[in-house]
Design brief:
Layout: H1 2-15, H2 23-35, H3 39-50, H4 53-79, H5 106-120, H6 124-143, H7 149-165, H8 167-188, H9 190-194
């Protein structure tokens, strides 16, 4: 365990920005760390509003996997505390963050869960776009000093495992669950749909 932690810290120090890092690069890293995750809800919203029932089913599937994966993260955080780099005075920190457990990263878990689900559901271009955002956020949050590399690797593993473990359940009940949500959506926004403002 000590060897893994030493390796984790060594890789962190290679990625983490320092006082000598150009200001523009630090600013870019902090921006990505804070806001690039917003690309995923935009992708999902566009899929829902502009796609047919097949794409909406994928949106429900991805969201479901993402929330379950985040729930697993919460359980891990309750059972095992791993300090963030700044909590042990390691490296430089350019982003304010609560000193809660670093492992695994919630940002990377959610992004990985959604990107993996999109890819497994055959939405390769959108899945690749979400995965690019995932990789960028994972790098940026280590670069900004609030996570270790192993937090990101663990997040990806948890997301992939969740996606695979939930696959049988989704095959059994996913379509029916999605159809029910789509029906609710059509009732809630029936007025703008009837006027052609939204796709039915």
């Amino acid at each position: 365990m000590e060897t893994i932690e030493a390796f984790n810290q060594a890789i962190f120090l290679q990625i983490n920005a320092t006082a000598a890092t150009p200001n523009w690069l630090v600013a870019a890293g902090v921006f990505i760390a804070n806001y690039a995750i917003g690309a995923v809800p935009i992708i999902l919203a566009c899929m829902w509003l502009c796609g047919g029932d097949d794409r909406r089913t994928t949106v429900v599937h991805a969201t479901f996997v993402g929330f379950v994966a985040l729930g697993i993260n919460q359980l891990i955080g309750l059972l095992w505390y791993h300090p963030r780099p700044f909590a042990i005075s390691l490296g430089y920190t350019f982003l304010e963050h609560a000193p809660d457990s670093s492992f695994p990263s919630d940002h990377a878990t959610l992004l990985s869960a959604i990107s993996f689900t999109l890819l497994y559901d055959g939405k390769r271009m959108l899945g690749a776009l979400a995965l690019a955002a995932d990789i960028a956020v994972a790098w940026a949050r280590v670069f900004a000093g609030v996570h270790f590399p192993m937090d990101m690797a663990g997040a990806a593993l948890i997301a992939w495992t969740t996606c695979r473990l939930l696959a049988p359940l989704w095959r059994f009940a996913g379509d029916a669950f999605s159809r029910a949500l789509i029906a609710v959506y059509r009732k809630v926004v029936a007025w703008p749909i009837s006027r052609g403002w939204l796709r039915p």
